[in-house]
Design brief:
The chain has a single domain, classed as Alpha-Beta Barrel (TIM Barrel). Helix content is 41%, strand content 12%. The chain is built from 14 helices and 12 strands. The strands form 3 sheets. It has an 8-stranded parallel beta sheet with strand order 4-11-10-9-8-7-6-5. Helix 10 links the parallel strand 8 and strand 9. It is globular, with a radius of gyration of 19 Å. The two termini are 34 Å apart.
Length: 361
């Protein structure tokens, strides 16, 4: 494994085909999935020269906590479907790499056990139909020592992930959403032909009526920093910043929600302009390398969330596989910073970029 992206081929050698499709697949014809990578490929950095880069710092404070990189592990559901050690292995790798880990509502390991690894832990929340259960999860996350709540706002229902539907995807035996306990909605069960059991479970428990006014209810029930994940339109970003949220994640869910949505990287500059520094700005969807991280920083992000490469590393080698992915990302970012004459991340934010047509920002 010489790059984070190399983990994909290694994971393919060990994952069951259905699980590999579940991890790597996206919604619809997967147009947005491919567009996310195309956006990175057509964006070019304009490096500077003659700066002292004998020492390069990749450190950043994210949501009030020091991080060795401008990177956090994205919320990734059902990690025990990929490796028996699941979220515990990933959280320990994040701790070893000095970056935050985001525990998911649909985690296959309890948030208390994840936080007990010592990793800086954020908690990703889906807006549940059962408001009492939502409040219970918030209290559990706070009691466990989580440092932030990340509300996913782009999933009123699950996107039509055709690979899962065609294969009638069901989670492997013994893997379930443990935060739902023995409730009937905690285990996806079997899927009928043309359906996904995971999508069916999501439809059962996620409330599609989530509105702006509900943020007040959430604020009243937690003192943790509030992050909204899944914002692409600058009007939504401006409204969110005006509501006092602590951070936004510019994301199209890795292409797994609305197929045909704008590549997240293309949406980032306008969102950054709309936010104008009023809250932190994170980015995900398509990040595969340290240079990708640098491009996101140059377009206005304070940090990125890393998703699929983490799962590929987990599948390929458990804790050590994830740690290898994160350390390679760190090496690539440090090298990219040095070659662009950026001794730190503040300098990275001042880099100019050019698109495929030559327009420079």
């Amino acid at each position: 494994m010489l790059t984070p992206a190399d983990a994909e081929a290694l994971a393919a050698d060990v994952l069951p085909a259905a699980v590999e499709r579940f991890v790597g697949g996206a919604a619809g014809a997967e147009l947005t999935l491919r567009a996310n990578r195309a956006a990175f490929d057509r964006l070019h950095l304009v490096p500077r020269v003659l700066a002292d880069v004998s020492s390069v710092s990749t450190a950043r404070t994210l949501l009030g906590t020091a991080s060795a990189l401008p990177v956090a592990v994205a919320p990734l559901a059902y990690q025990r479907a990929v490796h028996p050690d699941g979220e515990l292995a990933t959280a320990r790798a994040a701790q070893d790499a000095g970056v935050p880990f985001t525990a998911c509502t649909f985690s296959s390991t309890h948030v208390e056990d994840i936080a007990a690894t010592g990793a800086t832990t954020w908690f990703q929340l889906y807006w549940l139909r059962d408001r009492g259960h939502t409040e219970e999860l918030l209290k559990r996350a706070e009691a466990a020592g989580c440092r932030a709540v990340m509300l996913t706002v782009d999933t009123p229902r699950m996107g039509r992930r055709q690979a899962d539907m065609r294969g009638a995807f069901t989670l492997p035996e013994g893997v379930a959403a443990v935060h739902f306990g023995r409730r009937p909605d905690g285990v996806p069960g079997d899927a009928r032909s043309g359906t996904s059991a995971v999508a069916a479970q999501t439809a059962n428990v996620v409330d599609p009526s989530l509105r702006w006014a509900d943020l007040d209810w959430l604020r009243e029930r937690t003192s943790l920093p509030l992050v909204l994940k899944g914002v692409l339109d600058p009007a939504d970003a401006e409204r969110a910043a005006g509501c006092g949220v602590d951070a936004l994640v510019v994301s199209n869910h890795g292409g797994r929600q609305l197929d045909g949505a704008i590549p997240a990287l293309d949406a980032l500059p306008a969102v950054a302009d709309a936010v104008a520094g009023r809250c932190e700005l994170l980015f995900d969807s398509g990040v595969r390398s340290g240079t990708d991280v640098l491009k996101a920083l140059a377009l206005g992000a304070d940090g990125v969330l890393l998703g699929r490469p983490v799962l590929w590393g987990l599948a390929a080698g458990g804790h050590q596989g994830v740690l290898r992915v994160l350390r390679l990302l760190a090496e690539e970012l440090e090298t990219a910073l040095a070659l662009a004459a950026c001794p730190d991340l503040a300098a990275a934010a001042r880099l100019r970029v050019a698109n495929g047509g030559g327009t420079i920002r």
